[in-house]
């Protein structure tokens, strides 16, 4: 009863104002009210995640983005948060726009997201914008039923028995690697940047595996020489531009994942768009050539179960998908292009970075290199890379197996696995609202003292011998887990090991003193979806045994 006269007086006062002004005020309130609520009310007073532990040093509207940029490491400040709250399976932080984001730290929480509720999450828009321009919209960005369908289609090709047929290709490129190391000794006193070298080798491998083409990039001029006014780039230079942009380019990559700025008429954008366009045009051209080369009447007879040195991923896609007798199962040329972009980018760069960190660790732990050589010399492996290598013989090397896994644990090339809830879902007893970003990092598992012990930061391959059969496979997160586990993980490890056999058996490495890229603390590219040295990594190489 008391409110009635008060409301009456309020409306009488409003009546004396200009009616259009009142209506404008109401309209503005309707428009800005939800924004005000989302920025200032919901995160602090209404979010069901507000009870979770997490950092408080966020910046208005940009959350933890600036802190991440300033950290100098793509795994920070996330690893530091995990160690500050070691018992918390979920850690809450603010994303851009004061939005809720969750860092997943516990193994059980990882299982619930990557396995039990895997299709309740999908890649968030910012993550798509961050890397899709580089890796394409292949299987990595397929969701739900489409992902299941693509996974089933590609599974046979990536079976272990099929991949054994590519070992001769890997051995051939391993020999080429040794030739280039010999050239470095003759021409430059043995000093070289191994980041560039390994990137060229692994891209050439993926050129054969995915496209069936020699890319001729191992003898081209250094990346970046065609960045002037030319309207094209060599194949490898395109990937160099996309994966190793300059400082301005790195900043643009990060900003473009939030706000579209590729239209700005600046040099870094021009080079990015040139590399982006050239890469796609070159791959599209190869696809069209191969489509014309393959006879549709015999293409369906190609034995996907038994690829060999003359077969490749593109042949398989054309014969099995482009010319599929089932219209619902066919892939178009642009769809094939996106798949190839995914495998070329992910397949070559991750292995190149793994080789880089393996070489770095060999310079830090020369005794490990000798132990690997001793294992190779006492094994059933051929005495040199000119003799055929079998998958069984390669997998009979436990020390090499432990070494490669420990490299990936301590210096995992992939940084983030980001997902966004497509509906409300409960993880570890906590309601994760629709639209919430969840972030998983292999380093959060690999550098967690509660999982790997107090010496988790140390490189110690022998720790793998101490693991029993009861140890949880989820402790190793380099290739993710669940239905979306990396489909190329077997090929990646096979490639890693074949090249490591060549490297360990024939070469010794040392850091270059007096070069900021070779000595001292390694500066990392940050922000970055990959763990890589900024500006390369210079080493000095010499033959392990007299030739």
Describe this structure in words.
This protein is α+β, with helices and mostly antiparallel strands and 547 residues long. The protein has two domains: 3-125, no CATH class; 136-414 and 478-543, Cytochrome p450 (Orthogonal Bundle). It is 51% helix and 7% strand. The chain has helices at 3-15, 19-46, 65-71, 78-84, 107-116, 125-135, 144-155, 160-163, 167-188, 194-211, 235-243, 247-256, 267-293, 296-299, 313-322, 333-364, 366-377, 391-394, 398-410, 442-446, 449-452, 489-506; strands spanning 90-94, 100-104, 121-122, 191-193, 417-421, 425-427, 430-432, 437-440, 507-511, 538-543.
Tell how many strands the DSSP assignment holds.
10
Return residue spans where pLDDT drops below 50 for at least 5 consecutive residues: 217-230, 301-310
Mean pLDDT: 86
- Gyration radius, in Å: 26 Å
Number of helices: 22
CATH superfamily of the largest domain: Cytochrome P450
Principal-axes shape call = globular
Number of domains: 2
CATH class of the largest domain: Mainly Alpha
Strand arrangement within the widest β-sheet reads 1-2-8-5-3
What is the helical fraction, as a range of percent?
40-55%
Keywords: Heme, Iron, Metal-binding, Monooxygenase, Oxidoreductase
Cofactor: heme
InterPro entries: Cyt_P450, Cyt_P450_CS, Cyt_P450_E_grp-IV, Cyt_P450_sf, Cytochrome_P450_monoxygenase
Protein name: Cytochrome P450 3A5
């Amino acid at each position: 009863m008391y409110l009635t006269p008060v409301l009456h007086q309020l409306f009488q006062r409003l009546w004396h104002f200009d009616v259009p002004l009142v209506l404008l005020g109401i309209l503005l309130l309707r428009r800005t009210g939800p924004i005000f609520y989302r920025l200032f009310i919901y995160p602090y007073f209404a979010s069901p995640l507000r009870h979770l532990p997490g950092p408080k040093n966020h910046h208005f509207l940009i959350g933890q983005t600036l802190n991440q940029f300033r950290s100098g490491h793509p795994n920070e400040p996330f690893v530091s948060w995990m160690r500050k709250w070691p018992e918390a399976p979920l850690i809450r932080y603010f994303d851009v726009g004061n939005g809720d984001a969750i860092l997943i730290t516990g193994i059980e929480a990882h299982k619930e997201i990557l396995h039990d509720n895997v299709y309740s999450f999908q890649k968030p828009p910012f993550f798509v914008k961050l890397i899709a321009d580089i890796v394409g919209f292949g299987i990595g960005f397929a969701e739900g039923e489409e992902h299941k369908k693509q996974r089933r289609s590609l599974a046979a090709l990536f079976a272990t028995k099929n991949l054994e047929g590519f070992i001769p290709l890997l051995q051939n490129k391993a020999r080429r690697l040794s030739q280039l190391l010999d050239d470095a000794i003759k021409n430059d006193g043995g000093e070289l940047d191994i980041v560039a070298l390994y990137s060229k080798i692994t891209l050439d491998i993926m050129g054969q595996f995915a496209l069936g083409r020699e890319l001729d990039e191992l003898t081209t001029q250094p990346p970046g020489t065609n960045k002037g006014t030319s309207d094209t780039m060599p194949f490898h230079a395109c990937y160099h531009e996309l994966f190793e942009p300059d400082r301005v380019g790195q900043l643009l990559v990060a900003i473009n994942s939030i706000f579209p700025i590729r239209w700005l008429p600046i040099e870094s954008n021009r080079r990015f768009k040139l590399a982006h366009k050239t890469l796609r045009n070159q791959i599209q051209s190869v696809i069209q050539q191969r489509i014309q080369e393959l006879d549709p009447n015999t293409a369906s007879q190609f034995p996907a179960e038994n690829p060999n040195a003359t077969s490749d991923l593109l042949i398989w896609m054309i014969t099995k998908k482009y010319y599929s007798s089932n219209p619902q199962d066919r892939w178009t040329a642009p769809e094939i292009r996106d798949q190839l972009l995914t495998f070329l980018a992910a397949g070559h760069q991750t292995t190149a970075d793994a080789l880089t960190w393996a070489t770095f660790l060999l310079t830090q732990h020369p005794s490990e290199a000798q132990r690997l050589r001793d294992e190779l010399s006492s094994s059933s492996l051929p005495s040199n890379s000119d003799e055929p290598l079998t998958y069984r013989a390669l997998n009979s090397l436990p020390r090499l197996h432990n070494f490669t896994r420990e490299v990936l644990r301590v210096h995992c090339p992939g940084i983030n696995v980001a997902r966004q809830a497509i509906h409300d879902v409960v993880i570890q007893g906590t309601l994760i609202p629709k639209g919430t970003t969840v972030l998983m990092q292999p380093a959060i598992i690999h550098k967690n003292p509660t999982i790997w012990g107090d010496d988790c930061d140390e490189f110690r391959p022998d720790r793998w011998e101490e693991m029993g059969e009861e140890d949880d496979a989820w402790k190793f997160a380099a290739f993710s887990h669940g239905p979306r586990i990396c489909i190329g993980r077997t090929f990646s490890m096979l490639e890693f090991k074949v090249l490591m056999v060549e490297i360990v058996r024939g070469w010794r490495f040392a850091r270059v003193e007096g070069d900021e890229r070779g000595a001292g603390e390694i500066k990392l590219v940050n922000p970055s979806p990959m763990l890589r040295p900024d500006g390369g990594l210079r080493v000095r190489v010499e033959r392990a045994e007299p030739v």
